[in-house]
Write a structure and sequence with these properties.
Layout lengths: L6 E5 L4 H6 L1 H10 L4 E6 L4 H6 L5 E4 L20 E4 L5 H8 L5 E3 L20 H11 L24 E4 L11 H13 L4 E5 L4 H11 L6 E3 L6 H9 L3 E5 L2 H9 L3 E4 L5 H4 L7 E4 L20 H4 L3 H10 L12
Helix pairs in contact: 2-5, 6-7, 6-12
């Protein structure tokens, strides 16, 4: 008779950046439960990224609009031995997992689910640290610094290029296209190879910036659909630098330790930014009384703090970045 391995279900049905900030927690769970099959409930498009973490065995497709909790999970077979809520903090995600009948459920405490124990939620806490603290409360050692992923074996489509990513999920985190064009044009004229990456539907934006910067249409990668994750990861891993807003590609540059300049607006870098390192330069201009979340990260217009960042600041920051790892140098 075949004996099935116990299953550990993690709910993190969000985007690429959210997945990458959860890597330390996923790795901690993997180490703590080496005999379990670790299943990640996340959007199907993240399957290759989840595999790249080295912690996930299977992806259970699950998503909802925005940052909402999925209505259901298509779970089959025996209940999970352990379910872990890395999606958020509240009854919708707690109850979604509880309905599967797990033997154990790890989550932050919430008044709406008083029978579920857990640590107290903190608003002013970095996302990587938040989920590691949750696991430590349950006795699982977790290191927020354990966030690196290995570069893929896929060759880069533009080795040694400066990668510019102008898109973001919400206008509040999109730097003006004209600013991106100014930066791309200056880098191009200085002798750098510049490519622009575009997610699904972002092609017109990227092509407009490329044209204004004097770059050929071939400088735009993606746009009609997302770049396949192995190709995107190879591009970033072998880049000279990445220029990006507070979005998933910024977290990918951090995970691959590629030099980056990251532009922040409605949310403070201390909540979503990279570790303190000369390889990652953060630009953020809060007001004197701004909190960690001074604006709406999903707002309909660019955040004023983001608009205070100038093209010259970005160019200066790129010039101060250290050299990439040898693997990022152009292939002759």
């Amino acid at each position: 008779m075949t004996r099935h391995r116990p299953r550990l279900l993690v709910l993190r049905a969000l985007g690429l950046g959210d997945l990458l900030t959860a890597v330390p927690a996923l790795r901690a769970l993997r180490r703590a439960h080496p005999g379990h099959t670790l299943v990640l409930a996340a959007p199907a498009r993240l399957a290759e990224a989840a595999a790249a973490t080295g912690a996930v065995d299977h992806l259970l497709p699950a998503q909802a609009p925005g940052r909402a909790v999925p209505a259901t999970l298509n779970w089959t077979g025996p209940p999970p031995d352990l379910a872990v809520d890395l999606h958020g903090n509240g009854p919708p995600s707690h109850l979604l997992l509880h309905a599967l009948g797990p033997r154990r459920l790890y989550a932050y405490a919430h008044p709406g689910t008083p029978r579920l124990p857990g640590p107290s939620w903190r608003e002013d806490e970095h996302e990587r640290a938040r989920w590691c603290r949750l696991l430590r409360w349950y006795g699982i050692p977790a290191d927020p610094g354990d966030l690196r992923i290995p570069p893929p074996e896929t060759p880069s489509p533009a080795p040694g290029a400066v990668v510019v990513h102008p898109g973001a999920d919400a206008p509040a985190r999109r730097w003006p296209p004209g600013h991106f064009a100014t930066v791309a044009r200056a880098l191009h004229r200085a002798g750098h190879r510049v490519v622009l990456t575009a997610g699904a539907g972002e092609g017109p934006l990227a092509h407009r910036i490329a044209a204004e910067a004097g770059l050929p249409a071939s400088a735009v990668l993606g746009g009609t659909t997302d770049l396949p994750f192995p190709r995107l990861a190879a591009l970033v891993a072998h880049a000279r630098a990445v220029i990006v807003g507070d979005t998933g590609l910024a977290h990918l540059a951090t995970a691959l330790d590629t030099p980056s300049v990251i532009l922040f607006g409605p949310v403070a870098p201390r909540l979503w930014g990279p570790p303190d390192s000369p390889r990652h330069h953060v630009l953020w201009h809060p007001g004197p009384d701004d909190t960690a979340r001074p604006g709406d990260a999903h707002g309909p217009v660019p955040d004023p703090r983001l608009l205070r960042v100038t093209p010259q600041e970005v160019l200066t920051a790129v010039g101060r970045l250290p050299a990439p790892h040898p693997a990022a140098e152009p292939v002759s």
